[in-house]
Prior knowledge:
This protein is an alpha+beta fold. The protein has 5 helices and 16 strands. Zinc ion is lined by residues 10, 12, 219, 221, 255, 267.
Amino acid sequence: MLTQINGLHHVTSLASGAQSNNDFFTKTLGLRRVKKTVNFDAPEVYHLYYGDAEGTPGTVMTYFPFPGARRGRAGAGEVATTAFSVPTGTLPFWEERLSTKNIAGLEKGSRFGENVLAFRGPDGDGFALVESNDDRAPWVSTDVPEEVAIRGFHSADMRLSGRGADASAELLEFMGYQKEDSDGNVTRFRVPNGNEAQVIDISKVDAPMANQGAGSVHHIAFSVDNRETQLEVRKALMDTGYQVTPVIDRDYFWAIYFRTPGGVLFEVATNEPGFDRDEDTAHLGEALKLPSQHEHLRDVLEQKYLEPIHD
Ligand code: ZN
């Protein structure tokens, strides 16, 4: 069993428009845009990152906005809900705020004894806010005060069909997660001594496979401290039979990827070097940053492909 994984590092999803995506995360949810760059594998598309003040691993929601992309179709083999943690007693604030902004899918409930407010993102993305005792310092924006602000990820809920669910449960346990509780078709896993973004739920469903599109989660990334521990994790996964990519330099972290038995794409990402690698913490996310291999495309990307984002 692995001991190197701290919890989630980031969650990456697909969107249909950069401006609506930016406004939803920075204005409605009050996160900080911590990086404006491009998809390193398809530089005509933005890669936008939102999180706390520094983009601390475990707080970072990222998006590839493909202009006009069709919506995904929900189903098995995907992360159905990405949940953020908020302080205890703050869901009434959020319910009022999201309802005033006409956010779709608002639904109060509880899961494993915690109060949950589910809602939908601009492309039908599945989100939830969960009240929990979480002492991470939040990013504080103009209209979301510190005492109610999002602290980072609480969990991700993978919706998986029977065999995929069982095999993915085994994988999570191999990765260092412990089965904590079960409620109906949902099983909760938690990595001990993690980074607060340390919960994964598996919801077992009998449904056709999801079709990825705008509003779908593309992959979830797990945090390791550094490149050395990442190589240990990579070797252990490969020794167990997983096909894992070589280590890829993503400028702000190093990444490896592998497909899980339930269909979800997993990444393992390093906490180093971080988002302040190429700009001051005070100005994170403001300028368009390009990786060196795409810097020569800057003019054409800015003029032809990347719609300007107004803050
Ligand atoms: Zn990623």
